[in-house]
């Protein structure tokens, strides 16, 4: 008899062992929808919306961080493999005595609708 009760208690979930009581509950947390964005009623006609105390610092921090990140991204050093290879090729060509200068291959641009 004791053996069956202990195995039942071990196998039974916690909710069944505590007779259905939930001790962590602080009451209902369901908020009825009001139809307003963030449950904030619009101000009366002719009045401005009053900002909360945290909104200004939030906007300054958000847009300041975005601006700082954008400037940092624009001025980051070029570390691509293509730019390194180009510089390395120029350096090696100058060491050999070749000119790292682009010379067109003789292709002439012809105007498609010229009346010569």
UniProtKB/TrEMBL annotation:
UniProt membrane topology term: Single-pass membrane protein
Gene Ontology, cellular component aspect: mitochondrial inner membrane
Keyword tags: Electron transport, Membrane, Mitochondrion, Mitochondrion inner membrane, Respiratory chain, Transit peptide, Transmembrane, Transmembrane helix, Transport
Domain of life: Eukaryota
Location(s), subcellular: Mitochondrion inner membrane
Spans through the membrane: 57-75
Function: Accessory subunit of the mitochondrial membrane respiratory chain NADH dehydrogenase (Complex I), that is believed not to be involved in catalysis. Complex I functions in the transfer of electrons from NADH to the respiratory chain. The immediate electron acceptor for the enzyme is believed to be ubiquinone.
Complexes and interactors: Complex I is composed of 45 different subunits. Interacts with BCAP31.
Family: Belongs to the complex I NDUFB11 subunit family.
Protein name (record): NADH dehydrogenase [ubiquinone] 1 beta subcomplex subunit 11, mitochondrial
Source organism: Naematelia encephala
């Amino acid at each position: 008899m004791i053996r069956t009760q202990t195995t039942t208690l071990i196998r039974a979930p916690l909710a069944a062992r505590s007779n259905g009581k939930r001790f962590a509950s602080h009451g209902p947390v369901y908020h009825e929808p009001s139809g307003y964005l963030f449950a904030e009623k619009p101000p009366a006609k002719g009045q401005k919306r009053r900002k909360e105390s945290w909104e200004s610092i939030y906007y300054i921090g958000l847009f300041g961080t975005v601006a700082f990140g954008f400037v940092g991204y624009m001025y980051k050093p070029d570390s691509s493999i293509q730019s390194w290879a180009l510089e390395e090729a120029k350096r090696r060509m100058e060491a050999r005595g070749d000119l790292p200068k682009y010379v067109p291959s003789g292709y002439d641009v012809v105007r498609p609708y010229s009346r010569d």
